[in-house]
Amino acid sequence: MWELENVVKTSMEHEDSFFIPSEIERNNQEIENEVRLHFILKNPSENEPRAERMWVKITNRKNGKKTSYAGVLINKPVYIKDLQANDIIEFDADNIAQVIVKKDDPSWIDSSEKYAVVSKMCMEKNSVIRFMYREKPDRNEDSGWRMFTGLEDDDYSNDPENLKLVNVGYLLSKDPTLLTPLKKGYGAVFEREEKWEKIEDWTPEA
């Protein structure tokens, strides 16, 4: 037996580690789009996972205060025996854990599933990111983005205890203005007062 996870609730309980698409994205998926749902196992055995994460292709949608969908299960379940590939799954926006944003979509960025190194000052209440740059990373999960409030001094910024890894897609969902700089490649540097401005007279070290 299984049930679909309410990923909105889970995200609220684990804000620093569980990231989901924005409410707008979850409520505006179109027919033929593919979305990932979490199928939670009821009473899993010791050797079974908490959930199977599988993709569904949307075949129908119903608009309302909360958009509801139906779709065809793409994956073949490993642990859930009463589900098969091509089964019809009914779900709503609160069940959508991940969406596929295609390259021709204006909101597509190459780093949405990767991580940025962010000053902890940026995560404080009423603080925002005002300076960011992208250097070439040495790990696949690293986007190369480094983000600061602009108030940090060198001692603060050089102390690893003052930095944290944050999912780029999560940062974008919290601050949609980051989209413009996040579209840029390695070596990009941005600063903002009222709006983001590209900095041309400084580049991050290679």
Describe the structure.
It is a single chain. The protein is α+β, with helices and mostly antiparallel strands and 206 residues long. It folds into two domains: 98 residues, no CATH class; 84 residues, no CATH class. It is 13% helix and 32% strand. It contains five helices and twelve strands. Strands 1, 2, 3, 4, 5 and 6 form a six-stranded antiparallel β-sheet that branches. Strands 10-7-9-8-11-12 form a six-stranded mixed β-sheet. A hairpin with a 3-residue loop joins strand 11 and strand 12. The model has no long low-confidence stretch (mean pLDDT 91).
Largest sheet: 6 strands, antiparallel
Q: Please give the domain count.
A: 2
SS strand fraction: 25-35%
Low-confidence stretches: none
Number of helices: 5
Beta strands, count: 12
Q: What is the 3D form?
A: elongated
Helix vs. strand class:
alpha+beta
Radius of gyration: 20 Å
Features:
2 domains; alpha+beta; 12 strands; 6-stranded antiparallel β-sheet
Topology:
Elements: E1 2-4, H1 7-13, H2 23-27, E2 34-41, E3 51-62, E4 68-73, E5 88-92, E6 96-99, E7 115-119, E8 131-134, E9 142-148, H3 154-157, E10 163-167, H4 168-174, H5 179-182, E11 189-192, E12 196-198
Parallel strand pairs: 7-9
Antiparallel strand pairs: 1-2, 2-3, 2-6, 3-4, 4-5, 7-10, 8-9, 8-11, 11-12
